[in-house]
From TrEMBL:
Compositional bias of kind Low complexity: 729-738
Lineage of source species: Eukaryota, Viridiplantae, Streptophyta, Embryophyta, Tracheophyta
Catalytic activity: a di-trans,poly-cis-dolichyl diphosphooligosaccharide + L-asparaginyl-[protein] = N(4)-(oligosaccharide-(1->4)-N-acetyl-beta-D-glucosaminyl-(1->4)-N-acetyl-beta-D-glucosaminyl)-L-asparaginyl-[protein] + a di-trans,poly-cis-dolichyl diphosphate + H(+)
EC number: 2.4.99.18
Organism, scientific name: Carya illinoinensis
UniProt name for this protein: dolichyl-diphosphooligosaccharide--protein glycotransferase
Length: 748
């Protein structure tokens, strides 16, 4: 009777725990979604950054023309005059996912635009990623650790930085695919189910379609399989495996020998051995030739950058020029994972007690992700789930110890435990008596137990021993009451600090879209909408077939927002083409005009932050243009732009720097009424103030001078300008046209 009541109580407690866990997971999903909406609440529903604009443009094409046309789409508005085959050069997972969501909503008569779906895709999948983290951690250390890890991932700043509303990049769905693939792998490992193995393969396929980071999975899982094999293969097991293989080889040889004559058997052996040696030698020779002929020895540039952090800066400046490919600083870890950095070691220790295949996998995951995050700041995103899993395991184990210690030492807890122990012992006595009666009845039939029964009893004793040890171990992990209460209070305080930091990061650090900038001053909030202003001008004041040259950072936005053909964009697949643009920006005005004219360029766009203090402008990126251009065209040399090894734009700058196109397009007419021209980013007076443009003319400058657009002068106009000095003077006045109005000096 007591046993049935206990079983009912256990079932009810289990059911209540499942329901409670479900509601907690729903709240975690809501939290993961809502904390990423600050960008929409504070600004507006817009696409962020640079790459997401290309993904948005591709999704628009997919929803309008269908998947077949999307797969065969040749985009002639990018990489002019080369163009780009979109279907074969993108990871379609994100695009197909958002397109499917839009199609489902449309079929349900929910009229949402493609842009709205793209804006909210990342927050939706962040909730999915939190739930996948729960499932993965639950397979490793139980439901408590899973709930804790899911809550941590929902708020971790590193993941928020890539999944706020409007961040429509591949990582929006790829992190969910990464975690879910790992969960299905562990589930397959724990259950041996073919069903989960099939789901694991499908999830991995989705991951491959979504992000280039799939190489992390394709290497991590085999590494863990090898680790499992090594840990299983003790000396006894190794011998059995080796004999197993030898037996099959011998059986195959004897089978072939039995069906062939002795002479034919010798011929067959000679033939098989000869063919095997030739094939192995040929394959080895081909591999050696391919690796030797490749300048990167068969590795991609980004892979070599992960293995050798200095490789990109030495040999591939186009990779090194990307800010997210730089190594992170120590403050970056505190900013992106905060207190989790201190909880990860405790989680690793908890995974060793006891060590299983699942816990060894997450240990391998955290070790590899810590290394790769130290090489490239972008891969902090891969570290975030691993850090949340380890921290969730650590916090769950800590709370388990502290709450058990408090419960054990509360008044009345000892009596309850003794009563429970008494009930357990009495139940065990009754059970033992029943077993004894059964044994007596069996002894009446058979006096001696068989060897098989003895073996079973011995195995039963061996099984019961670890449970006794674990009970003793749990009793030993009882801390003083005061220490447990203080420890729980400190953990809650640590969690509160983490929540406050995550909310601040989501609201302030990572919610601002790069296309709309803001700044706070004594006058209040200032909004800088210069990028959209410039793209709108290009869209309304240039011909549809006009080509626009700029540095590659702005290519995707120019194509998506202005609908104009660009020379290079953020895909950066053709280093020579980018080097050509970098060379033009680094050359004198006449040489730059000849390069752009050969590419059929009509307009040149530059980003300048010297007036408002915007640091991510083209002058700060200029040395990368020099390095990339010099890597292909040797006449461009970086020392020519440096004075005693220093990059300067003041009066001490080199003549090469002061006469290059980038300097002139950035600082043209940048002079105050009193003759001063102070650059607020470089915090210095510029070196060359009064100069005229002979091959380019300013056609538009945005309100805060952040984006400046110039038009290439036709050849005959420049010749006529030299012949008629009076007309040249009239045409080079400070007033330039800006949508029908006269452009004022910025300092007035």
């Amino acid at each position: 009777m007591a046993a049935s009541e206990t079983s009912k109580e256990t079932i009810l407690r289990y059911a209540f725990g499942n329901v409670l866990s479900f509601f907690i997971l729903v709240l975690i999903g809501v939290l993961a979604f809502s904390i990423r909406l600050f960008s929409v609440i504070k600004y507006e529903s817009v696409i962020h950054e640079f790459d997401p604009y290309f993904n948005y443009r591709v999704t628009q094409y997919l929803t309008k023309n269908g998947i077949y046309d999307f797969w065969n789409w040749f985009d002639d508005r990018t990489w002019y005059p080369l163009g780009r085959v979109i279907g074969g050069t993108v990871y379609p997972g994100l695009t197909l996912t958002a397109g499917t969501i839009w199609w489902l909503l449309s079929s349900l008569n929910i009229p949402l635009s493609v842009e709205t779906v793209c804006v909210f895709t990342a927050p939706i999948f962040s909730a999915f990623a939190s739930w996948a983290t729960y499932l993965l951690t639950k397979e490793v250390k139980g439901a408590g650790a899973g709930l804790m890890a899911a809550a941590l991932l929902a708020m971790v700043p590193s993941y928020i930085s890539r999944s706020v509303a409007g961040s429509y990049d591949n990582e929006a769905v790829a992190i969910f695919a990464l975690i879910f693939t790992f969960y299905l792998y562990i589930k397959t490992l724990n259950t041996g189910s073919l069903f989960y193995a099939t789901l694991n393969a499908i999830a991995y396929f989705y991951m491959v379609c979504s992000w280039g980071g799939y190489t992390f999975i394709i290497n991590l899982i085999p590494m863990h399989v090898l680790l499992c094999i090594v840990t299983v293969m003790t000396s006894e097991h190794f011998a059995s495996f080796l004999v197993f293989i030898i037996i099959h080889v011998v059986a195959l040889v004897y089978y072939i020998k039995g069906i062939l004559s002795p002479k034919m058997f010798k011929v067959a052996v000679t033939f098989v051995v000869s063919i095997g040696v030739v094939v192995c030698g040929a394959v080895l020779a081909v591999l050696i030739a391919l690796v030797a002929s490749s300048p990167t020895k068969g590795w991609s540039g980004r892979s070599l950058s992960l293995l050798d952090p200095t490789y990109a800066s030495k040999y591939i400046p186009i990779i090194a020029s990307v800010s997210e490919h730089q190594p992170p600083t120590w403050p970056s870890y505190f900013m992106d994972i905060n207190v989790l950095a201190f909880l990860v070691p405790a989680g690793i220790i908890a995974c060793f007690s006891p060590l299983s295949d699942a816990s060894s996998f997450v240990i391998l995951y955290i070790v590899t992700s810590v290394y790769f995050s130290g090489v490239m700041v972008r891969l902090m995103l891969v570290l975030a789930p691993a850090a949340c899993i380890m921290s969730g395991i650590a916090l769950s184990a800590a709370f388990d110890v502290f709450t058990r210690s408090i419960k054990f030492q509360l008044p009345g807890a000892t009596e309850n435990s003794e009563r429970d122990a008494g009930e357990t012992s009495s139940n065990s006595v009754v059970a033992q008596n029943d077993v004894a009666k059964t044994e007596k009845n069996e002894d009446a039939v058979k006096e001696r137990p068989s060897k098989k029964n003895r073996k079973k009893e011995k195995e039963k004793e061996n099984v019961e021993k670890p449970s006794v040890k674990s009970q003793i171990k749990k009793k030993l992990l009882i801390l003083p009451l005061e220490a447990s209460i203080i420890a729980i209070f400190l953990l809650v305080l640590l969690g509160a600090f983490y929540v406050v930091h995550c909310v601040w990061a989501a609201a302030e650090a990572y919610s601002a879209p790069s296309i709309v900038l803001t700044s706070h001053s004594q006058d209040g909030l200032h909004v800088f909408d210069d990028f959209r202003e410039a793209y709108a001008w290009l869209s309304h004041n240039t011909e549809v077939d006009d080509k626009v040259a700029s540095w590659w950072d702005y290519g995707y936005q120019t194509t998506a927002m202005a609908n104009r053909t660009v020379i290079v964009d953020n895909n950066t697949w053709n280093n020579t083409h980018i080097a050509t643009v970098g060379t033009a920006m680094s050359s004198p005005e006449k040489a730059a005009w000849e390069i752009f004219n050969s590419l059929d360029v009509k307009y040149v766009l530059v980003v300048f932050g010297g007036l408002v203090g915007y640091p991510s402008d083209d002058i700060n990126k200029f040395l990368w243009m020099v390095r990339i251009g010099g890597g292909v065209f040797p006449h461009i040399k970086e020392p020519d732009y440096l004075r005693d090894g220093q990059y300067r734009i003041d009066s001490q700058a080199t003549p090469t720097m002061l006469n290059c196109l980038m300097y002139k397009l950035s600082y043209y007419r940048f002079v105050e009424t009193d003759g001063k021209a102070f650059d607020r980013v470089r915090r210095t007076e510029i070196g060359k103030k009064y100069f005229k443009l002979t091959h380019f003319e300013e056609v538009f400058t945005t309100h805060h001078w952040m984006v400046r657009i110039y038009k290439l002068k036709p050849p005959k106009n420049r010749i006529r300008g030299r012949a008629k000095k009076s007309k040249s003077k009239a045409s080079s006045t400070t007033g330039t046209k800006r949508i029908g109005t006269k452009k004022k000096n910025p300092w007035h």
